[in-house]
Amino acid sequence: MAQDSTVPKLNFDYWLNKAIEWGQATTLESQKDVCLHLPQLQEFLQQLYETLKDEGSIAAIQQFPLLGQLLGRLCWNPFVIGYDESQKTLMWCLCCLYSSEPQNPVELKANSWIRSLLCHLLSSSKWESNEAETSPFISTLGYTSADYYCHLVKNMVFSLVTELRENQFNGLNTQRSVSASEVNAVSIFCVPLITLPDLTPLLETLLLYHGDSPKEILCPEFLEAVNEAFLKKKISLPESAVFSLWLRHLPSLEKATLHLLDQLISIQLNSLEEVACVMKDSLLPQAASHPAIFRVVNEIFKNALLETDGTSEVMTIIQIFTQLFLEAHQNQNKQHAFPLKAYFPGHHQPLVRALLRRPSELPTTSWSLHLKNISDMLKALVEDTNISSLTDLFEIWFLVACFGEWLDIAAEQLLKAAVQPDALLWLLAFYYCPQNENQQRTRAMVEVQAVYNHLMMLLSCADLSLKHLEAAVHRITGTEQCCNQHLMTHLLTNFLLFSSGGHMVAQKCIYHITEATDTGKEVYGLLIRTAYRLQRRGEENQRTMKLLNELLQKLTWKV
Hints:
Radius of gyration: 31 Å
Strand content: under 5%
């Protein structure tokens, strides 16, 4: 009984035929088929319930005259009512059909039939524990029905786990080798029981099981159901089992990554600690220690950035993910760690190694020299005649953008009097203006150099006013190039946060710039990244942190 590759979402006739075909699922073939269709059936039942709720029972019965037959058959299928929320949804559908004030014998009879089905469903929701109805055999053992069936499930799970593990480790040395088809059958029959707590050891064992077959031996419906239950936090699995799931089933990894993106984009990014917490909870940064997982996740992030036109929210998410990935990679056992080239196979490896160095690994006095090294390598790559296509240029830019912490530190280092600014300014100019078509980046360098020189003259001024910053603000609000605005705003914001007199005019100055330009989200992202960076470095200057919090509150409405 092969599973259909596509099933219409609200095809009543399809599911009625299936229910008739299945009966009460007494044969092995029908049981397998039920298990393979359970997720789709649950989706259909949910949509059917929404239809009944919105249109009313009379309109629904007119549209589907055999609705009662379908619901009745499904209510007596133990696999259906045992799966996730299908039993509850069936009860909701029946309640929608119930007439609170029956007007004729037909409605009275229908109510009686619905009550009997509801009683059946309610009694099926727990093991019968009445001693009078317990079989003599179970009573002789000293168990109630509930205890007996609970122990039965645990013993079956223990037996299967033991057999699979012995087969995995001993292979052909076992008395009876477990075939790939048997493992596949076990995975199919687990689908309706995924959320059963006692089944967790078996789920873990199946996910970590690898037979001799070159093909995947676990059924895809099982892998999808486990992933869905994990994402909805209906089950808890060890990290190793989750990583194995994503390595052996690409659709599950893709769904997990998109699920994380949806989660993060839907919440207000008030603090990057919250973002980091959600990311760690997803296990994706830890799983990305495996290069195959990292490359898939990175590709999805890259596409998300392109689809959102490089929005600052998505860019910040990518940068925090990269930081957490680096932490997880460095915490790995060095004997089992993959070479860094495996994560970035198509890139200039000296540049990759430089970007992968975390700021905390270097003394702060070496940061500017390290950034100059990154800038010089990047400039040589970008100006190489072999980098001719926009695709190649974008790949280089995306690599640098993933390590945005170094870019923020570059802007911070420019305020140090001893630094040589040209290399750091070029690095920032490349980030904000990666293309140099029509000398765009060259012109950006000229403008930002003028703003930078002006700000450096004011660096030691303790009594700053808006008038002092008028020239810099005018350059920002007067330019038509969006990338130039963002670059100069980045420099000015850092100046206001870290210079001795900047705090006095920071709120008024930033408010003025964000009112006159479309840089509100960019500034907000910069501020929360700065707060996060200072907290991670243990440099929580009370005055600066207070200013950051005030600015973030002021800008929240703009984002």
